[in-house]
Amino acid sequence: MATIRSIAVFCGASMGNKGVYRHAAEDLGKEMVSRGIRLVYGAGSVGLMGVVAHTVHDRGGEVLGVIPEPLAPREVAGEQIGDTIIVGTMHERKATMARHADAFLAMPGGYGTLDELFEAITWGQVGIHRKPIGIFNVNGYFDPLLQWVDAAVKEGFIRPILRQLFIVNDDPSLLLERMAQQQPPLGLLKWPEDGEANG
Asked: In angstroms, rounded to a whole number, what is the distance separating the alpha carbons of residues 151 and 144?
């Protein structure tokens, strides 16, 4: 059983077109605070990531934002919430978030969210980390993506065991519980203990 003290949350810098996404972000933030879990996120106060951060911070939880310098100006990212680490590049941002997190969680978002989610999954696949990965499937948002993953398994491009690298739920409480119980499969390769995403 994993000890999860902090989670890197990947989600949209936009709100989406439906109120259900904002409510889900608030619910996730509340659940994290109730479990004493620190939020690690992409920094700023815009979109769903801002909602999660405000919810955690306003309820007394810990928040760590990581943002590349070009995205740091207030007019781009909004106000900074909690502690903030400014890095040079997007690559540094993802590596820094990974170092400070015991697990990864994605909720609805766009290109950036999928980039972060699949990098975490890929790192798990090749054995850079064995941290839990969760997908908060709000309003069935990830259903088409999950159908693609299952098709890739069926067509022989993803090993069936590696389908277990992440878990999916539409309830934040159940998702966090299952992440704490998750035992991710071993990755394909052995990496040095000081690999940049190890933890």
From this structure: 11
Q: Give residue 82's identity as a one-letter amino acid code.
A: G
CATH number at residue 63: 3.40.50.450
What's the domain range around 33?
6-140+167-181
Give start and end residues of each alpha helix (H) in the chain.
19-34, 47-58, 74-77, 90-99, 111-126, 143-154, 172-181
What are the pLDDT digits (tens) for 75-122? 566 788 999 999 999 999 999 999 999 999 999 999 999 999 999 999
Q: Is residue 192 included in any domain, yes or no?
A: no
The residues near 8 (Cβ < 8 Å, ≥ 6 apart) are 40, 41, 97, 98, 100, 101, 103, 104, 105, 116, 120
Phi, psi of 179 (to 5 degrees): -65, -40
